[in-house]
Amino acid sequence: MDFRSGKIVFNDFDLNSAVPLNEQIWSLKEDILQVEYSNEYILDVGWVHDFDAEKGCFKLVIIKQEDWLNPIFVWKTKSVRQLYNYMNEAVSKLELLVK
Hints:
Radius of gyration: 13 Å
Largest sheet: 5 strands, antiparallel
Distance between the termini: 21 Å
Strand content: 25-35%
Number of helices: 1
Shape: globular
Number of strands: 5
Structural class: alpha+beta
Strand order of the largest sheet: 1-2-3-4-5
């Protein structure tokens, strides 16, 4: 994954789109990936409902100035492939925001 101008500050992303989520439950946790952009924006990826493939989902957010209560973009999915699509979309949005 190319995060362009983003700086990875936390990376515990070890998910495989070819493997069912219920076989990767130890990778389904609140903190999966965090990328900073120009010290103003954060791209954050996590799993809501730690270690629960049935009830949970990936949540990808863009945060501005560490305002976690009011993310400027939010995406949710249960699919690793869709998560990659959302991450690419988020990176494109962030690159426009930091220009």
